[in-house]
Amino acid sequence: MSNKEQTIDVKPIVWTVAGSDTAGLAGQVADIRAMEALNTHPCMITTAVTAQNNQGVVALNALSYEQINSQFEALKNQLQPEAIKVGLLPTVDALNALSGFLQDYQGQLVLDPVLMSSSGKLLVEEGVMERYPSLFSKTTLITPNIPELAALTGINVCDEASIKAAADKLLEQGVNAVLVKGGHQETIELDDVGEGFVHDYFVSQSQSFWLHQEKQSTENTRGTGCVLASAIAAALAQKYSLEDAVVLGKMLLNQALRNGYSLTSEQGLQKGPLKPLAWPQETGDVPLLTSNMQNPQKYQFPACDEDKPLGLYPVVDRAEWLERLLPLGVTTIQLRVKDLEGEALEEEIRKAVAIAEAHKARLFINDYWQLAIKYNAYGVHLGQEDLEATDVSAIADAGLRLGLSTHCYYEVARAHTIKPSYLACGPVYHTDSKDMPWIPHGIDNLMKWQALLPDYPWVAIGGINLERFPRVVKTGVSGIAMISAITQACDSEAITKTMLELFKA
């Protein structure tokens, strides 16, 4: 291969504006580990050359305005960042140097407000905390822990209500979004919230949610805030949405905690650093995602015949399609009606259930879960946008299966919390069947999601035609959902037979 033909691997650049750590536990050392684990290239702008060990900070050694600004000048023209993670700003000089650069900066910025050490020692000089709001208009996400949230807002953060009130105050001051880290939740009243979990609160101008994760039993927790904020910045640099970046950041943090290591066996000095490795691929790293602070409700949905894949999975809009396709050998089908209501809709669903039962087929009803329960359909399929208006418990109590659509990491975490009967990944390819803001996943991401959550049957959907069908089958998915490739075909029965044979092969 000639040099001209070689593919150049260009990694997104992420800056860390923070302090160094002589012990290699936190600060920019932790930032670099996290950024590289998510396949980005870190650049450093150092604000302080701290002297510390695994017992605490000995000295800050803040750099001057000129020293910090020269680093910005060296990087800004040749190594421009897709995202910036900001940590320790020990002096007004450091804050001013950053503010000067941000005047023309239009990228993503994750602000981790390092205000005090874990031992409670103040790490910033007088005047820094008061000037933090000057950074907020450029801040994509701020990630305070509970003591930092209280210090920045002047609110006594002691329970769920005060967490929300303090986060809202930061939004009012100009921040785009807030992620309140729950690692210090021993300082708040938990009420009915399980103490075996860590609860993080995300809020933006458009939505809010809680992330829940079982606490890991480890002493090696130095650099947790650095790893989380840096991982989020790295995900943003790769064009993930903010919500996806937060979920990915939490996943990498969970991985890093699990792989942390000690530096000594001497009693009281064992606390070591986190160790982020690579793109997280363990089911246990996926956080649970809900709309409130309480531990997620546990549902019990029946399985979809574990020894029998879902197979070719047509999505149709009328019961008459079942009469055409089920005799050909289709065993799973979805009725998605968008243009009927009232008695006409109910009759269509009743007919479809009767036809499916006659052929011993698995019929999922899209959206209309009450009618699916009434006529005892095999299951219900829901989009994420329908979850808030759905009584998920009623579906589970009725013994129906549940399938959920997922398009991004945020939705995967939300769906995993509910533990449905199957998960759908889409769009795999570009599709015109439905308006979607998501970039097509392609085969690689489809396989990545299956590896991440292997206990679910996965259904591939979106832009899959006859030519692409064999490639999707090779991924090992349980089902392949087809809409227009069947319903708009010149000979729907013929293409259905062909796809059935390809799936078996």
UniProtKB/TrEMBL annotation:
Cross-referenced InterPro entries: Aldolase_TIM, HMP/HMP-P_kinase_dom, PM/HMP-P_kinase-1, Ribokinase-like, ThiamineP_synth_sf, ThiamineP_synth_TenI, TMP_synthase
Domain Pyridoxamine kinase/Phosphomethylpyrimidine kinase: 21-268
Cofactor note: Binds 1 Mg(2+) ion per subunit.
Gene3D superfamilies reported in the protein's UniProt record: 3.40.1190.20, Aldolase class I
Binding site for Mg(2+): D367, D386
Superkingdom classification of source: Bacteria
Protein's pathway: Cofactor biosynthesis; thiamine diphosphate biosynthesis; thiamine phosphate from 4-amino-2-methyl-5-diphosphomethylpyrimidine and 4-methyl-5-(2-phosphoethyl)-thiazole: step 1/1
Catalytic activity: 2-(2-carboxy-4-methylthiazol-5-yl)ethyl phosphate + 4-amino-2-methyl-5-(diphosphooxymethyl)pyrimidine + 2 H(+) = thiamine phosphate + CO2 + diphosphate; 2-[(2R,5Z)-2-carboxy-4-methylthiazol-5(2H)-ylidene]ethyl phosphate + 4-amino-2-methyl-5-(diphosphooxymethyl)pyrimidine + 2 H(+) = thiamine phosphate + CO2 + diphosphate; 4-methyl-5-(2-phosphooxyethyl)-thiazole + 4-amino-2-methyl-5-(diphosphooxymethyl)pyrimidine + H(+) = thiamine phosphate + diphosphate
Enzyme class: transferase
Binding sites annotated in the UniProt record for 2-[(2R,5Z)-2-carboxy-4-methylthiazol-5(2H)-ylidene]ethyl phosphate: T431, D432, S433, G463, I483, S484
Gene Ontology process terms (BP): thiamine biosynthetic process; thiamine diphosphate biosynthetic process
GO function terms (MF aspect): ATP binding; hydroxymethylpyrimidine kinase activity; magnesium ion binding; phosphomethylpyrimidine kinase activity; thiamine-phosphate diphosphorylase activity
Entry-linked CDD domains: HMPP_kinase, TMP_TenI
Cofactor(s), names only, from the UniProt record: Mg(2+)
Amino acids binding 4-amino-2-methyl-5-(diphosphooxymethyl)pyrimidine: Q334, L335, R336, V337, K338, N366, S405, K434
GO CC aspect terms: cytosol
Occurrences of domain Thiamine phosphate synthase/TenI (ranges): 318-486
Alphabetized UniProt keyword annotations: ATP-binding, Kinase, Magnesium, Metal-binding, Multifunctional enzyme, Nucleotide-binding, Thiamine biosynthesis, Transferase
EC number: 2.5.1.3
NCBIfam families in UniProt: PRK03512.1, thiE
The family this protein is said to belong to: Belongs to the thiamine-phosphate synthase family.
Protein function: Condenses 4-methyl-5-(beta-hydroxyethyl)thiazole monophosphate (THZ-P) and 2-methyl-4-amino-5-hydroxymethyl pyrimidine pyrophosphate (HMP-PP) to form thiamine monophosphate (TMP).
Name assigned to this protein: Thiamine-phosphate synthase
Gene symbol of the encoding locus: thiE
